[in-house]
Design goal:
Number of helices: 19
Order of helices and strands: HHHHHHHHHHHHHHHHEEHHH
Number of strands: 2
Largest sheet: 2 strands, antiparallel
Structural class: mainly alpha
Keywords: Membrane, Transmembrane, Transmembrane helix, Transport
Protein name: Sodium-dependent transporter
Helix content: over 70%
Bound molecules: phenylalanine, sodium ion
Number of domains: 1
Subcellular location: Membrane
Shape: globular
InterPro entries: Na/ntran_symport, SNS_sf, YocR/YhdH-like
Pfam families: SNF
């Protein structure tokens, strides 16, 4: 059987497609808003450069050397304690867990694409009412779009690396970039652009506490798709003799620039036409539609384009979240791609319905455990525990378990003199940082 591999550009777009997701356009602006902008953005950027980039290279390396599903790759690369290390590969499950809420949010986005064509809410209050009505009462709409999202994602996965994943990324990623750049250029022409710039880059360090710091680090991981085996699984299909460092650079660069471009654009619109940087997950679903309303008919066009771009970002990430487990069942249990894709799809689809219901009045009560409902728990457990844990394991694995020689033979020619710095950061800086983040996210620190 011929093994399907990504082309060079196909790999970069697919990995960037994984990285650029709801994290960049939905999450980043609202958490930046929550922590007052500037200083938070700088902490995030530094983390992306120092820790994110290093782990990106490490995660790519495991996939590239292992050439198999995440579990097998860990197993085969470990010189000792294979049967223990292989459990690190089960990080791939985290992606399926993320999908439980990710697919529901993509459903909301589909709904917003459709409704923005005809009408936008005139005020923030109205927008808030529209959003909460959908969230708290409208099971059918949410279920319908969650089903659309599940069907599309599963279908793409059945088509495989080349005919499915590479193909959709080659179309959706350039489209997403064109939409965002077009809207960004319009934002540049508005007076409020300088306010947005100021909000995002003028650092007010008084707003930075340990909570802001930890959120920034956690988000750097989430946004780069690290620690879940998504990048690893794609890297198993990288061309021979690829330059991992260059590839990692492109993915980090695209993810970071898209977050900044989207953030600047959104904040410009919110300053110019709305109530300024809003807080909370409702930012793009509540404050933004109300700001678009003020733009008249152009606002409708922008709203549709914006939510389309957001859907593209979410869908390209989704396939990468499910693919690790699909690959696992294909490699280890010799399942057909069809069977593996359908089963993994059904898993997140069905549990996703519980997540969806946990926001709905009447169901919420039974689906709330302690401080959070099921939906928020899944978000929290994946971002706070599974992701940093995955990153930690990968750093330790490449830093200590795999022989240095092997790592060097591939990366020394690509990293040159910086190899030792990278290796040191992976062995000591990253694990310590990840450990601190995990402890504080679960409330021990
Ligand atoms: N990076 C994606 C985002 O920013 C989310 C993601 C996390 C995708 C982990 C794959 C793996 O939305
Ligand atoms: Na991202």
């Amino acid at each position: 059987m011929k093994i399907a591999r990504f082309s060079r550009i196909g790999f970069i777009l697919a990995a960037a497609g994984s990285a650029v997701g709801l994290g960049n356009i939905w999450k980043f602006p609202y958490i930046a808003g929550e922590f007052g902008g500037g200083a938070f953005v700088l902490v995030y950027l530094i983390t992306v450069l120092l820790i994110g980039f290093s782990i990106m290279i490490a995660e790519m390396l495991i996939g590239y050397m292992g050439r198999k599903d995440t579990v097998t790759s860990f197993e085969e690369l470990a010189p000792k304690h294979k049967h223990i290390w292989k459990f690190a590969g089960f990080q791939g499950l985290a992606g399926l867990f993320v999908m439980i809420f990710y697919s529901v949010v993509i459903g909301w986005i589909f709904n917003y694409i459709v409704t923005s064509i005809i009408s936008l809410p005139a005020t923030v209050e109205e927008a808030e009412k529209t959003f909460t009505t959908m969230l708290r009462t409208d099971i059918m709409t949410q279920l319908f779009y969650h089903t659309v999202s599940f069907t599309w994602i599963t279908y793409v996965l059945t088509k495989g690396i080349k005919g499915g994943i590479e193909k959709i990324n080659m179309i959706l990623m350039p489209s997403l970039m064109i939409i965002l750049i077009g809207m960004f250029i319009y934002a540049l022409s508005l007076d409020a652009f300088s306010q947005a710039l100021n909000f995002m880059f003028a650092a007010d360090w008084s707003k930075i506490d340990s909570n802001a710091f930890v959120t920034a680090v956690g988000h750097a991981f989430f946004t780069l798709s690290l620690g879940m085996g998504a990048i690893m699984t794609y890297s198993a299909s990288m061309e021979k003799n690829s330059n991992l460092v260059k590839n990692a650079f492109w993915v980090v660069f695209l993810d970071t620039s898209i977050a900044i471009v989207a953030g600047l654009m959104l904040f410009t619109f919110l300053y110019q036409y709305g109530a300024g940087p809003a807080k909370g997950p409702g930012l793009v679903f509540i404050s933004l539609p109300a700001a678009f309303y003020e733009m008249g008919i152009l606002g409708n066009i922008f709203a549709v384009l914006f939510f389309l771009a957001l859907a593209f970002a979410g869908l390209t990430s989704s396939v990468s979240l499910v693919e690790p487990m699909v690959q696992y069942f294909i490699d280890r249990f010799k399942w057909s791609r069809l069977k593996a894709s359908m089963s993994m799809g059904l898993f997140f689809y069905l549990i996703g319905i519980i997540a969806l219901l946990s926001n709905v009045d009447g169901f919420k009560e039974a689906l709330t455990f302690g401080s959070k409902n099921f939906f928020d728990w899944v978000d929290y457990i994946t971002a706070a525990i599974m992701l940093p844990m995955g990153g930690l394991l990968m750093a330790l694995f490449i830093g200590f378990a795999v022989e240095k020689q092997r790592v060097e033979s591939i990366l020394k020619p690509q990293l040159g003199a910086t190899f030792e710095i990278w290796y040191f950061s992976l062995r000591y800086i990253t694990p310590v940082a990840m450990f601190i983040v995990m402890l504080s996210l679960v409330g021990v620190l």
